[in-house]
Amino acid sequence: MTSAIILFSHGSVLCGAGEALERHAARLRDLGLADIVEIGYLNYSEPLFSEAVDECVRLGTDAIVVAPYFLVPGYFVNVDLPKCLAAAQDAHPDVAFIPAEPIGFDARLADALIETANRPLNRFQWRDDLLEAARHCRSNVNCPLYGTANCPAGKEGHVLTQPVCVQTYGKVRNGPPPALLVMAHGTPNPTANAEMYRVVEEIRERAAFPIVAAGFLDCNQPSIPEAIDQCVGLGAQSIVAVPYFLHPGMHVADDLPTLIEEAERRHPAVSFAMGSYLGQAGQLSEILADRIQVARDRYSDARNPPSPRA
After folding, report:
1. Closest to 239 measured CA to CA, from 300, 288, 293, 173
2. Would you state the pLDDT for residue 137?
3. SS3 assignment, position 61
4. Which 3 state secondary structure label does DSSP give 52?
5. How many alpha carbons fall within 13 Å on the CB side of residue 198?
6. Can you tell me the distance from the alpha carbon of 103 to that of 67, in angstroms, rounded to the nearest whole number?
7. How much is the pLDDT for 310?
8. Distance (Å) of CA 283 to CA 28, 103, 153
9. What integer pLDDT is reported at residue 9 of this predicted model?
10. Residue 170, domain CATH
11. R_g over Cα of the chain
């Protein structure tokens, strides 16, 4: 049997946003987890999930593990993925589709966030993903940003609005331990954030930072500005913010740096820094490999139940 894995992801309007996921796919290939490892996107990016399935079938697989590259079991995992799997099963009735669990909680995510926070980016790197997108521009008329003022290919770079804050990077790295702010997207289903909060609590229990807070870009409370204000209210003199995001979409590339710059203007006495988005962390390849193996074992057990005792 030719085995296959598809990493199922949402996709991004930001060109080149899938590079981190490509690296995780390459690591899974290096681990020899399957004969075929593909990426399939729900929207915007290529290839689409259906195209990835077709490619796996063309290469001769009859069983595909579908691993959701999502941090929480939100709408895309609970609603869109089952629809995609049902359509794929209708198109390929002789292929077994084996769904794995999303990333969810794993103590290694705490390791990744701590490591990232301890290696904050230089301020001038905050929008590197936005600048890099221009070099990956697909010039696709179907892209929602095509021909608009928001297309990175039409920008020469983002002008920093507060040059005095360029000293922040050194202060956070070399000063007293900063507060850690985990910046998450948020979901209409607040219970889906439970596993993210478990990661945050894991970091608190390790006492790696004097203050650990989480803030949301959308849907949930506290908002990122509110979480920053709470950290300052608790006495934080410096804050390092880490995006709890898997892809460098427009949120990571522009929205989050803008929020931090706005916080700098509200709190000029506080030093701010940002870390890389979570999707860059090598631990995610290990977690994905574990989720895939659990799905395979479950599928194998279901196909080969133990013989009843005589």
Report:
1. 173
2. 61
3. strand
4. helix
5. 14
6. 9
7. 45
8. 12, 11, 32
9. 95
10. 3.40.50.1400
11. 21
Tokens 């983002």 belong to residue: 158
Name the burial class of residue 235, with classes exposed (0-12), middle (13-18) and buried (19+) by CB atoms within 10 angstroms of its CB: exposed
Q: What pLDDT is attached to residue 119?
A: 93
Tokens of 214: 């989480």
Residue 308 lies in a domain: no
What is the rounded distance in angstroms from the CA atom of residue 306 to the CA atom of residue 9?
Answer: 35
Domain assignment present for residue 47? The answer is yes
Taking the mean position of all CA atoms in its chain, how far away is CA 58? 29
pLDDT at res. 125:
83
For residue 15, CA distances in Å to 67, 114, 163 come to: 23, 28, 28
DSSP conformational letter for 251? I
Residue ranges of the chain whose pLDDT lies below 50: 156-170, 310
Q: In terms of domains, do 262 and 200 share one?
A: yes
Angle 29-30-35 from CA coordinates, rounded to 5°: 35
Sorted by sequence, the CB contacts under 8 Å of residue 122 that are 6+ apart come out as 169
Decide: 145 and 151 in contact? Cβ < 8 Å.
yes
> Could you tell me the residue range of the domain that residue 21 belongs to?
2-104+281-303
Closest CA to 239 of 284, 275, 287: 275
Tokens (6 digits) for 27: 């690591």
What lies within 8 Å, CB to CB, of 303 at 6+ separation is none
Tokens of 211: 């203050």
**Are 163 and 19 within one domain?**
no
Task: Record the pTM.
Answer: 0.85
Structure tokens at 246: 């898997």
Q: Is the peptide bond before 47 cis (omega within 30 degrees of 0)?
A: yes
The sign of the CA dihedral 250, 255, 260, 264 is: positive
CA 144 – CA 215 distance, rounded (Å): 27
Query: 10, 29, 25, 276: which is closest to 132 by C-alpha?
Result: 276
The helix/strand/coil state of 59 is: coil
Q: Quick one: three-class SS letters along 21-57?
A: HHHHHHHHHHHCCCCEEEEEECCCCCCEHHHHHHHHH
